[in-house]
Amino acid sequence: MNTVGLVxxxxxxxxxxxxxxFDVFGIAVVGLVTAFAGGATRDVLVNRxxxxxxxxxxxSLGLFGVALAVGLTVLLDSPEDHPVTLASDAVGLAAFATAxxxxxxxxxxxxxxxxxxxxxxxxxxxxxxxxxxxxxPFVLFDDFYASCAVLxxxxxxxxxxxxxxGGTAAAVCAATTLGTRLAAVNYGWRLPTAQALGLAREGVxxx
Amino acid sequence: MNTVGLVxxxxxxxxxxxxxxFDVFGIAVVGLVTAFAGGATRDVLVNRxxxxxxxxxxxSLGLFGVALAVGLTVLLDSPEDHPVTLASDAVGLAAFATAxxxxxxxxxxxxxxxxxxxxxxxxxxxxxxxxxxxxxPFVLFDDFYASCAVLxxxxxxxxxxxxxxGGTAAAVCAATTLGTRLAAVNYGWRLPTAQALGLAREGVxxx
Amino acid sequence: MNTVGLVxxxxxxxxxxxxxxFDVFGIAVVGLVTAFAGGATRDVLVNRxxxxxxxxxxxSLGLFGVALAVGLTVLLDSPEDHPVTLASDAVGLAAFATAxxxxxxxxxxxxxxxxxxxxxxxxxxxxxxxxxxxxxPFVLFDDFYASCAVLxxxxxxxxxxxxxxGGTAAAVCAATTLGTRLAAVNYGWRLPTAQALGLAREGVxxx
Lengths: 207, 207, 207
Prior knowledge:
Chains A, B, C: It is found in: Cell membrane. The structure is a homotrimer. Chain A is mostly helical.
């Protein structure tokens, strides 16, 4: 799952950078940032040297994702919207939320800390890439995406509360994240804005 | 003071995010980032796991601030400009500058390091939130805000030089930050830009 | 070299901030971020407290660069494009890429980790400053700049592979970075975008 996620995240990031007409160095950086910055932020927050800097295997996957993005752009108009990419991206979201939950629990964080690290691990790379592309992170106003990682991390914590840990808790987290994300893509779920909620409430108040 | 500050900072951040029509996840994230990212950056720089990830009390205050922002937006046009909010925000600025000064001194940093960490602790959250909102951090070009934290941190260092430490030095730092901030709000203090200074100098040169 | 680099980087950053009409606090912050954020990010990633926070010498150089920028702006139209600044900036790029390579190697990172840290050390400050100025980091789409640090870090790794280490490897890294950067400035080197490459390939496909 991690492998699929790294390739999918790097592909999505590199595609965004190509659309902004970044040069090949920029394309590679935005792709790798999308794939690795979430995990690196997690590692910095729990006081570890980021794993991706110490091994070569993961980076090769990221570069493969970047190369795939460049190759597919010649064939497809928007490879990042292809159903296979969306599904792979959802798998990555689940894998990264699970990895974050496990690392945060091992580091002895609070239940909030576990959910926060799961979410940062899953969506931090994409959010960082959006900042590099000079836009607000899409996870803050669009789509039902980061919420899936929040739900996955919460499921991991809840599993721990009822005594389910280890591999089973990880599976619960991954399944929750993946399931809600696939449902969100399929049914077009979105979170409301304060305007939507506020207007509704104002409307009630006025009548 | 820390309690007041966390609630006020989260409220200010969440209000900004609502104005940008972020969804409820985005509103919560920007509010929590405003309240906690300064302290988390401080902890990462001195090589500690951020405190906010290890306990639940502080996060509850942050979420309370976010909820307050949503609630007050229905009642007030701009709750973040209300005198009570401005005063609470100044209290938070003083509390966070003081916390930063103490942590940096304990970590054995230089006098510059203490002032830098006091400032990052106090304004880093707001600056990070502005980056998420896709704008330049307001502390860099507007208002007399970060300067109060710089003065507070410098007062803490100066107190140490003349042999005043511990609680008294902390009180000096907090009073300096709070006093200068309230004066800045009251009298509309601003720092000059290079244009203002440069033009003045050019004017002198031309005549 | 480090001295020249810190002053040149702070000057370039402060000049950018003046152009955006930041106030004097903002000008100092953007100048210092340009000079120190790359090294601070390196230190955080390898789990050290940033050196710049623990000593006063380096910060003094950064503040000198900021003051120089303010002073030169009165005399020159764009001090950051002056040949002396461009050459000093190239020296800084080489010094920082070399420092990053050495620290990353000492921390036991992989060959990718060494190249990544060398690049982050060399261009991270400028990229961070661009984010504060609310623009995409220029190194991602413009100029042949970060690529020189990538080549320098790679040369350091390659030197290690063939048994050349210590001061000689550092000299190879610095010379590679400085040489390619000066050549890039002189001959106007740029990396291609995907559009440039893709269009070429499409053209081949169409005919």
